[in-house]
């Protein structure tokens, strides 16, 4: 039986890729076809994404894929969450999308909270507070020059799908990161839209993963574009090779998304106080998690040090003794780009977050890398313990997926801090989740998430780290 082919476009904050997903019998595998950078650019006084570059590179990858695999059956697109473009009434992008690391949204948070207090926001949208959630970014746009001309607010993966199909929709899992969705009804919240003065007509209608969005002729023969969990984290969670339901997860890329999968949201005051989020996953599952700092901290240091070999650096970090300094990886002072080694050293110097570890200020690249990895591992363990307390569930093991699953030191330290085994991999959980949701929609993969994950557990090479 020949493999069936599905194209995954997966773009994260630090890079994009187009992959061919091959689904055959009980197995699924990926062939990388094209990788490209996703640099932040500064234009018109804001940090932005170069959307035309992303669109071009997506097309380049898809055309290459279609040449190699003309039988490709469908395309699915996922990207990072929360960011959007404004389209005018003719469907033209008014400006490249502002990036969530731009500081403008943080400046209007107090104004927004004066209109709708944070506890009322949480009661409707169930989200953790993050200063760049779409609703704050929209409030910043409302004060800007383009707002009067905006006819559509379109999330980044939906913008790419629009360029391919001409159809405007908002995919549900990503809509749940905007802060404007009612987490119980899973519809746009008319109440929040009214109070925040955002016309409902600006937001395209919702669409769930597994629906065919439209067809593109951009590759030659017409190919359907299938809506997947277009929030990369939603696809990553589909791509967790779990074989039980008592697992915690860390989806570790630019961010670490750390939490549990639940059947329903947890909207208690304690969950809000602990800053947990209830994002909507594929098949209506709830991703009860926290955004914890991620590889961004390390990537930004590497950029500052002119990209030394990461494996050598991590080996040197692993050789350092345990018990060194740790920082609060969620410190908002670490969100913006630039000067990361100095900011981490300052966080150690000024911080009281080292749990009494009384660390010396790290100065060498190895010491800084170790400080970052120690801090991430500690934050993962702490977050999963909190998640278990808040939900009354047991976490018997942790699935660590995404780029961070390659980092053996991080996996080992996470198992030690959490006191439960860590199963590392797949690195490309997001692209796999993207492919499997398409494959299922086209009758090439099983119906339930549990069966899809069984598929993956069989097909993936995973590493297991026992706590010591
Ligand atoms: C991870 C991610 C995360 C969001 C952030 C903006 O890539 O999508 O889930 O909170 O980017």
From TrEMBL:
Give all residue intervals belonging to the Carbohydrate kinase FGGY C-terminal domain.
249-441
Q: Name one GO cellular component term.
A: cytosol
Q: Which Pfam families match?
A: FGGY_C, FGGY_N
InterPro entries documented for this protein: ATPase_NBD, FGGY_C, FGGY_N, Rhamnulokinase
Report the superkingdom from the record. Answer: Bacteria
Q: Which GO annotations describe the biological process of this protein?
A: glycerol metabolic process; rhamnose catabolic process
Does the record's keyword annotation contain Lipoprotein? no
Q: Residue ranges of the Carbohydrate kinase FGGY N-terminal domain? A: 8-239
Tell me which PANTHER family the record gives: L-RHAMNULOKINASE (PTHR10196:SF93), SUGAR KINASE (PTHR10196)
Q: Family per UniProt?
A: Belongs to the FGGY kinase family.
The entry's protein name is Carbohydrate kinase
* Originating species: Parafrankia colletiae
């Amino acid at each position: 039986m020949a493999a069936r082919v599905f194209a995954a476009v997966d773009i994260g904050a630090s890079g994009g890729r187009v992959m061919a997903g091959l689904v055959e019998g009980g197995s699924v595998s990926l062939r990388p076809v094209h990788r490209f950078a996703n640099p932040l650019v500064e234009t018109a006084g804001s940090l932005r994404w170069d959307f035309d570059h992303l669109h071009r590179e997506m097309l380049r990858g898809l055309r290459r894929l279609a040449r190699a695999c003309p039988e490709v059956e469908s395309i699915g697109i996922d990207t990072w969450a929360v960011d959007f473009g404004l389209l005018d009434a003719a469907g033209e992008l008014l400006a490249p999308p502002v990036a969530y690391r731009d500081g403008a949204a943080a400046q209007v948070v107090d104004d927004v909270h004066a209109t709708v207090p944070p506890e009322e926001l949480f009661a409707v949208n169930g989200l953790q507070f993050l200063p760049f959630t779409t609703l704050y970014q929209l409030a910043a746009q409302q004060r800007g020059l383009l707002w009067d001309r905006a006819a559509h607010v379109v999330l980044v993966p939906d913008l790419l799908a629009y360029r391919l199909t001409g159809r405007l929709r908002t995919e549900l899992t990503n809509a749940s990161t905007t802060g404007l969705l009612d987490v119980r009804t899973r519809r746009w919240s008319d109440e929040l839209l009214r109070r925040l003065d955002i016309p409902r007509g600006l937001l395209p209608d919702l669409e769930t993963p597994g629906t065919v969005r439209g067809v593109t002729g951009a590759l030659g023969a017409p190919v359907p574009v299938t809506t997947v969990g277009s929030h990369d984290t939603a696809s990553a969670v589909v791509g967790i090779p779990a074989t039980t339901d008592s697992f915690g997860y860390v989806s570790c890329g630019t961010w670490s998304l750390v939490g549990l999968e639940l059947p329903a949201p947890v909207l208690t005051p304690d969950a809000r106080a602990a800053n947990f989020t209830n994002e909507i996953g594929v098949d209506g599952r709830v991703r009860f998690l926290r955004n914890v700092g991620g590889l961004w901290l390390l990537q930004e240091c590497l950029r500052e040090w002119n990209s030394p070999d990461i494996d050598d650096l991590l080996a040197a970090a692993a050789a350092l003794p345990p018990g060194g300094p740790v920082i609060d990886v969620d410190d908002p002072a670490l969100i913006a780009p630039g000067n990361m080694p100095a900011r981490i050293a300052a966080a150690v110097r000024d911080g009281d977050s080292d749990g009494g570890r009384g660390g010396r200020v790290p100065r060498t690249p190895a010491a800084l890398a170790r400080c970052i990895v120690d801090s991430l591992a500690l934050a993962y363990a702490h977050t999963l313990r909190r998640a278990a307390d808040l939900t009354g569930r047991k976490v018997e093991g942790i699935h660590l997926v995404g780029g961070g699953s390659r980092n053996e030191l991080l996996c080992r330290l996470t198992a030690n801090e959490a006191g439960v085994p860590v199963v590392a991999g797949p690195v490309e959980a997001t692209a796999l989740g993207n492919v499997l949701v398409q494959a299922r929609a086209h009758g090439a993969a099983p119906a339930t998430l549990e069966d899809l994950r069984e598929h993956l557990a069989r097909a993936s090479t995973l590493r297991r780290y026992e706590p010591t």
